[in-house]
Each structure stands twice: as C-alpha cells, then as structure tokens.
C-alpha cells in the first residue's frame, strides 16, 4: 500500500523514464490542481535536501516536491510547471489510455547550449574527472553519428504524407547538439527548466523512488518529467548504477542513456539494443570492439552509399576450432548454397554487403562480397527495390507533439498530435536478386537488429545470414 501511495506522488511529477534494467500508510489524491497528502517524511540521500510533510490537511505543491527531488530551485508556478492534464500520458503503464509516443521525444530542441552537471558516487568505478571525460566523449560520438547521417541542424519535419505539419508557433526547430558541463552549484541557480544532471554511481530520492516502484535492478536510467510542449527543452537525469564495475560497460550504458536524451529509440542502432542488459551480462561472449560504440560493424543505423556492412553473427568470441569474430563457418552454410557459390565445406568466410548506389529511398544497387580463405573473392551485384507496403513510425529521433496542419480546411483537423522527425527515410526491407555469372539468386534485405540477407537457391532452399 505504501508503494502504491508513493506512486501517486511520483505520477504527480508527470515523469517519463527510459531504463536499462537488469533481469535479476501514505495516501495521495489528485483533483484538478490540488494534491493532498499524508506523507510522513521524504528523506533524500546525503548532499540532498531533506524535507518532511506531516500535516495531512496541507495543500501539497508538486513544485516543492520537484525542488526536493531535483535539488534545483524553481520559481515557476504550478500551472506552468506541472500540467496535470498530462498526468497519465507520460510513458507510465496504466489503464490502457496512455500515450507512449512521448517517452521517445528528443529532450532538447533549438540552438541554445544545454548546461549539465556531473555527480559521482563514492562507490563509482570512475572518479569525477573520468566521468566528465566519458560523458563529454559520448556527446562527441553521438554528434559524429548524427553528422554521418546528415541529421545535425536539420529541422524536424513530418513524413511525406503530412508534409505541411508545423509547430504551433511556426518556428523551425532542430535537435540540440551542444552540451556544456558546469558545476552543480551553478546549475542549481538556473531557472530555465532544462537542467540535465548526470548521476554516475550516485542516486537521489527520485531515482530511488522510481527503482523502488518500477524496477528491481537497473543498469541505467534516462528520467525526465512530463514533456514541455512549449519550450521543447526539458529537465531530467541520466543515472548509472554503482554496481557497474567495468569501465567499458559503464561507457556503453552512458552512450545508451544519452541516446534516449537525443530521442533515439530502442533497437534503432547497436548501442540502443532493447536487450542491452542481456548483451552486457554476456559480454564475455562478445568482442570488446562492440562495447562502448554506437554502431557495430554488423549493425549500422541505415544503408549508406559506399559503405561495407559485415554480415555475421554479431560479435561472439570464437570457440576452440571456430572462426574468428566476423567470419562465418563454411560448414554452417547450407550445402546447396556452398555448391551454387563454389564454396568449400571447411574453413571460414567473410560476407559483406556493399551499397554501390542509392537511387532515392526506394531503389539501390547492392553488391554481396564473399571472401574465402586462400580463394578469390566473389562479387554478386543486383538491383533492389524497397518492399515496404505500410508506413511505420520512424526509428529516427523526433518529437510527438501538438502541431498545426496549415492545409486543413476543417477546424477540428487544424491542430493535431503527430510525430515529426529529423530524418524519415525508409530504405528497408527490399527485394531483388543477386547475379553470379549466369546464375541469379532472389534475395531479400531487411533489418533485425542489424542487416539480414536472405538468399534463395531454388526448391525453397534459403540461406539466411546476419543473425
């Protein structure tokens, strides 16, 4: 009962959380703009403010609770700071009436630099200097990633079917990419409502309360309050567990959680793997080259012209007498495929997919490169066409918010809630065929946590590679 009552208080924050979780008699009432409580005490970990509320008849102001939990002064009024109309639309599991679009929103839009501070726990594997450096490098890597795919400083826009949706104020906004570390004392003085605090191996009351109510053991959290649909700049925390005792794992978790700050969805790219915990707990079976990186060789964000993409089971360390990381054991390939491709039944092979030319979002030329030990490489080229029949929610970072439909003729269609994205390109799945000499092999290219190639050799015999 106590946990349920605390949940009501936490819900009053209209908080949205994205977590990386390891598998391993107070009462609150919400009524319009008034919350009453019989909460006896709310204690914050050391260095955090301690405040108690004991009078059950006292009007409870969520703004004060925010001050307790974030330890950042806030003079904004209740109506502005806490829109209780969004109470059950903040990404929480509820009665089925929630909207989960908001939890993947980009936290910061606009050209202004975002200030953040770093707090490090006594049990953290890294010190303050090392943590700051890791976070700074992580921001740089994400910035390079977005540059690679031409998404930086690119205004958010609707997909082609809703090309004329715009922000209500008519401004064009892009994703914020500039972040600057300041002291936590300096950040406390900020009244912008866009504070970002990194808690590396250190907790606070909000994190503890969320973990107590929502998860048992977490590796990391990206936690913010209800989305600000006016400024599009939101305060929140990035937290990592003090139980992480491997620097490479910590870097991976930090990259993952910062990805959520940028609005990157789970399973959009290697570091955003929804099964990240399974990956980290089985890290001894994986190549260290796949730790602390946004993209792995076999899991790129999307097809890029001139790029070679490795096709193999991703990153497992070789067993005795097995192939090296990134290579495929020939004996695991279907016999008919080896025969058609002229492959040996022993040894190892490397298979790569190269993008020769992209002809818009629908067509592209691909080359499948097969390299066998002590043998000449074989190149199979083909033209592929996108086979997507239904539009899907983009894996690109974006914002789900209230927009204006400038072409609407009916008033009720003028203002709508829709998702606008930085980049809405859909290039996969695709169908086509690869040619090798006089032979032609139908094929399908898709994404399933990395590139997957399916080759048909007749008689309903398929070779699936990439997973």
TrEMBL record:
Keywords: Signal
InterPro entries: MetalloPept_cat_dom_sf
Organism listed in the record: Halobacteriovorax marinus
Protein name from the UniProt record: Peptidase M10 metallopeptidase domain-containing protein
Keyword Plastid attached: no
Signal peptide: 1-17
Keyword Oxidoreductase recorded: no
GO molecular function: metallopeptidase activity
